[in-house]
Amino acid sequence: MLAVPARAVADEQVSSQDTTFMVQNAQTDLAEISLGQIAVQRATSSDARNLAQETMADHQQALGKLQTLASQNGVALPDTPSAEQHSMAAAVTSESGSAFDVAYLRAQVTGHTTSISQAETELSSGRDAAVVAFARDYLPVAQKHLAHAQSALQAMGLAPSGVNTGSGGAAAAQDAPVGWYAAIAAGGLVLAAAAALTLLPSRRGQASQPR
Fold first, then answer.
1. What is residue 160's three-state secondary structure?
2. For 168, which DSSP code?
3. Which of 10, 160, 167, 210 is 20 to 30 Å apart from 195, CA to CA?
4. Which CATH architecture has domain 16-164+177-193?
């Protein structure tokens, strides 16, 4: 009897849920990296600036590992954030001073709450062992970012809640989002995470926690 190649077996195990999670997580990484780069420069409080540096570094590592994992599974990842993430970031970058800090922190609460939910769905419904392992390692990192954003808002005397995207979020994204992200991408800043790929081991079936 002929042995079935390991690659073929792995391909059969990638479900639509696994693919959906990888795509969603890549969009989150891209959004956090790009918005973090803006926040590092524009935040007026140390809490917001430190969170931006932390999330940017962690999501760069996560994206590099996810790109390796997706490549091993034949999954094409997006190269821009989602429409809703575009819309939210456009709203953040329209603010300045302390209002920018508040908008950024609230966006962090909203974004990481969503990302945590996506990771939990993968843990309960994912099929591919390596993708599930990645979600398991990613989850505490996203929870850490959420806690830090909430703590920063509380330190400012504000409720630790996120933004209310409302029913018009997707529609607004069609007009508002392009500028902030395109400007960063044109400068090559968002693609800084790609350099990490050359340092990552190409090992099938493993996805370690972002640090």
1. coil
2. T
3. 10
4. Up-down Bundle (1.20)
Q: Residues of 132-168 as b/e, b for ≥16 C-beta within 10 angstroms? A: bbbbebbbebbeebbebbbebbeeeeeebebbebeee
Residue the block writes with tokens 């850490």: 144
Q: Contact at 8 Å (CB) between 33 and 52?
A: no
pTM (2 decimals)?
0.75
Q: Coil, helix or strand for 206?
A: coil
Residue 207 pLDDT > 90: no
What are the b/e assignments for 9-27, b being 16+ CB within 10 Å? ebeeebeebbbbbbbbbbb
d(CA 100, CA 2) in angstroms, rounded, equals 61
Handedness of CA 95, 101, 104, 107 (dihedral sign): negative
Q: Which amino acid belongs to residue 170?
A: A
**Among 28, 125, 22, residue whose Cα is nearest residue 76:** 22
Q: What is the pLDDT of residue 15?
A: 93
Per-residue DSSP letter, 167? T
Q: Position 36: which residue type? A: G
Q: Is 201 exposed, middle or buried (0-12, 13-18, 19+ CB in 10 A)?
A: exposed
